[in-house]
Amino acid sequence: MSYDIDFFYTLKGIDTLMEGLLVTLQLSLTSIVIGVSLGFVVALMVMSPSKLLSWPATSFIEIFRCTPALIQIVWIFYCVPMLFNVFLDPIVMGVLALSLNLIAFNAEAYRAAIQAIPKAQLDASVALGLNKIQTNVYVVLPQAIRLALPVLVTNGISIFQQSALVAIVAIEDLMYMGKMLSTETYRPIETFTVVALIYFAIALPAMYISSQLEKRLKVA
User: Fold this and answer.
1) How close are the terminal C-alpha atoms of the chain, in Å?
2) How far apart are CA 44 and CA 103, in angstroms?
3) Does residue 64 contact residue 131 with C-beta atoms inside 8 Å?
4) What sign does the CA torsion over 88, 90, 95, 101 have?
5) Measured between alpha carbons, how far is 139 from 208 in angstroms, rounded to an integer?
6) CATH number of the 14-173+199-219 domain
7) Environment class of residue 157 by beta-carbon count within 10 Å: exposed (0-12), middle (13-18) or buried (19+)?
8) Is residue 91 classed exposed, middle or buried when 0-12, 13-18 and 19+ CB atoms within 10 A define those classes?
9) Of 53, 194, 205, 215, which is most buried, counting CB atoms within 10 Å of its CB?
């Protein structure tokens, strides 16, 4: 059986793929913002001397780091509504699933960065009369972001790639629209090649930025 490569019909439906790309970017960027913000909070909870804070945070991290992202997405989409009678917009559910995964990985990146901050700086903040919250906001957070930035960028790229998994629950992202277009045009090779190139075109510059940030931080 021969198969003639022809991108005509795939490129003709590029608008369909762009619609899916917008959803993918919406899911990814929203999840990244939430993951970067709450990841720091969870890291502080893990490092808290209070077991009421550290144990739940540690359990949360281990659950989301040690289970496949696909299982997490399916569980949140199908089990949460059944167990808690909560029905949310599919995009919101997608953001929730991706954000929780990213928070867990970012929390570990922040934790390692916080541990790398010299203790003398924390002692200096106490000497200056800063309370715990002020120390975390003005001393710990800026340095933690700086030290963890390459890992945070890498995690952001990873969640952008993993966002393709939401296609399994019928969210009309880039992967889902690519699947629909391939079915309509009977051109799976061409369609998924274009889809892969779109992911590549966005992820490659981000990975380059991550490597440059890492090099600059090593020099500094």
Assistant:
1) 59
2) 12
3) no
4) positive
5) 29
6) 1.10.3720.10
7) buried
8) middle
9) 194
In one letter, which amino acid is 132?
A: K
Looking at every residue in the chain, the average pLDDT score rounds to 91
Q: Average pLDDT of 99-123?
A: 92
Q: How far apart are CA 24 and CA 16, in angstroms?
A: 13
71: how many CB neighbours lie within 10 A of its CB? 10
Asked if 147 and 217 count as a contact pair (C-beta separation under 8 A), the reply is yes
Stated length of the chain: 220
Q: State how far the alpha carbon of 206 is from the alpha carbons of 24, 47, 49, 152, 209, in Å.
A: 16, 30, 37, 11, 5
pLDDT tens figures, 51-89: 999 999 999 999 999 999 999 999 999 998 999 888 889
Sign of CA dihedral 214, 217, 218, 219: positive
pLDDT tens profile 98-108: 999 999 999 99
| Nearest Cα to Cα of residue 69 among 42, 99, 24 | 99
DSSP string, 97-138: HHHHHHHHHHHHHHHHHHHTS-HHHHHHHHHTT--HHHHIII
Structural Rg of the chain based on CA atoms: 21
> How would you classify residue 81: left for phi > 0, otherwise alpha for psi between -120 and 50, otherwise beta?
alpha
- pLDDT per residue as tens digits for the range 10-55: 999 999 999 999 999 999 999 999 999 999 999 999 999 999 999 9
